[in-house]
Amino acid sequence: MNPKILVFAGSIRTGAYSGQTADAAMKELAQQGAEVTRISLADYPLPIMDEDLEKEKGIPENVYRLGRLIAAHDGVLIASPEYNASIPPLLKNTVDWVSRLSKDGGRALRPWSGKPVGLCSSSDGNFAGIRGLYHLRAVLMNCRADIVTPQCSVARAQDAFDADGNFKEERLRGMMEAVCRTLIERARMLSTRVEV
């Protein structure tokens, strides 16, 4: 089985390092035989998570669209930037909204539950976004996602990529290869894909 993996970045800024990292992950996953879907969260705008809003207007349609996409894939890879040593608000808001789903029409829909997730990070500093991944890992585990252990964190990201978007350093290539390989293996083993 060629697993279906959904890839997105936690930033929608033009030229974002997390977007470049997501692109590198997409290439590596495809090279390892996965069927990859690359999306941008810019295509799924959401209001700030607010239970009063949810009660008044219901869960936004873009949450359902994202939830169905996650459910229709065997695994997810998220490339995140780091804001103040934590999760960027766009990504946290997206994760929180998707976690509100329990049903889609008459069918159960809990997109994060049991879903294999691989994590990458990037920053222009030496910490490589690792502190933000610590928090993201905890949040996703609380949503019952199955987070793979290897991760790829890109320090000094402004100098990390060549003109073709590939990593210059062998060490980073090895880290990305490991997280993608582990995610593919886990996705094959624990496939919870729901055709929607």
Automatic annotation (TrEMBL):
PANTHER family: CHROMATE REDUCTASE (PTHR30543), NAD(P)H-DEPENDENT FMN REDUCTASE LOT6 (PTHR30543:SF21). InterPro entries: Flavoprotein-like_sf, FMN_Rdtase-like_dom, NAD(P)H-dep_reductase. One of its GO terms (cellular component) is cytosol. Residues 3-157 form the NADPH-dependent FMN reductase-like domain. This is NADPH-dependent FMN reductase. GO terms for molecular function: FMN binding; oxidoreductase activity. The lineage of its organism: Bacteria, Pseudomonadati, Pseudomonadota, Alphaproteobacteria, Hyphomicrobiales. Gene3D superfamilies: 3.40.50.360. It comes from Nitratireductor pacificus pht-3B. Pfam families: FMN_red.
